[in-house]
Design a protein that fits this description.
Blueprint (H helix, E strand, L loop, with lengths): L13 H10 L6 H52 L3 H18 L12 E4 L2 E4 L8 E2 L4 H22 L11 H17 L8 E2 L2 E2 L2 H13 L8 H20 L7
Antiparallel strand pairs: 1-2, 2-3, 4-5
Helix pairs in contact: 1-2, 2-4, 2-5, 5-7
Length: 252
């Protein structure tokens, strides 16, 4: 039985538990008491683990963004590096003229030796506007900056996905919850925790119980991943039995 992990409000109401018990032929008495205990505590653990899953999803999304930045910066660096000398010189001249023009205006800066960017110009500030100095914002500088940005964006993406090869699998919260449902369904009720599908939809009693209980627990849960989680849970259970007995039990 899963451990009680939090004092949050109960994941299931009494009415919801009674409806589940009635729908899935769970009799009054010890079986219904076990249903309430298992679902409440497994639900609390699910919500606790889901917070970790959500944080992982955010890291993976940020890693995807960083790889996109790295590709774009690398493309920019390559384009700047390929500029003909005439193009490089003209871009430098335009940047310098923009900087000199901007220095004649009242630019707000945090203080001396701060970098100010305005209208395509980059300047290093001084005590007075007339002492502002243009920065060499040209193709060579841009290529170096873009290369550095690409390198660091890729470095961050690699750090965010360290230890996670390929696509993420079944969310940990769902996997653990299904394992707990197997413990209740097979271990407490003594019913087979089987899985079959018709046209991609689970059709066994174990699947429909899990589906109905999960929809109540988390209306936003990825129901499409429930079948995968049940299959993985059954495979893991068969392997544990095989390790104890020296033979592999038959699949469904």
């Amino acid at each position: 039985m899963p451990a009680n992990t939090t004092n949050r409000s109960a994941p299931y109401t009494g009415a919801q538990l009674n409806a589940l018990a009635t729908s899935h032929d769970i009799p009054d008495g010890p079986a219904r008491h076990a249903l309430a205990t298992w679902l409440q505590q497994a639900g609390e653990l699910y919500h606790a683990l889901k917070q970790s899953d959500d944080a992982t999803d955010q890291r993976l999304a940020l890693a995807t963004d960083m790889r996109r930045v790295a590709r774009a910066a690398s493309t920019l660096a390559d384009a700047l590096a390929r500029l003909a000398p005439q193009g490089t010189a003209q871009l430098r001249a335009v940047a310098h003229a923009a900087a000199m023009s901007a220095s004649q205006h009242d630019l707000r800066a945090d203080g001396p030796d701060a970098v100010v960017v305005a209208d395509g110009a980059a300047l290093l500030t001084g005590p007075q506007p007339e002492t502002y100095r243009p920065i060499g914002w040209d193709a060579e500088w841009g290529a170096l900056a873009a290369t550095g940005l690409a390198t660091n964006a890729k470095r961050l993406a690699d750090a965010l996905t360290a230890g996670r090869a390929g696509r993420p699998g079944t969310p940990n919260a769902l996997r653990v919850w299904v394992e707990n449902m197997r413990g209740f369904w097979a271990g407490v009720l003594g019913r087979p925790f089987t899985f079959d599908a018709h046209k991609g939809q689970g059709v066994t009693a174990a699947y429909t119980f899990c589906r109905d209980a999960l929809v109540i627990l988390d209306p936003a849960a990825p129901i499409g991943e429930l079948s995968t989680a049940i299959r993985k849970t059954r495979t893991a259970a068969r392997k544990r039995v095989g390790a104890r007995t020296g033979r592999n039990p038959p699949s469904d």
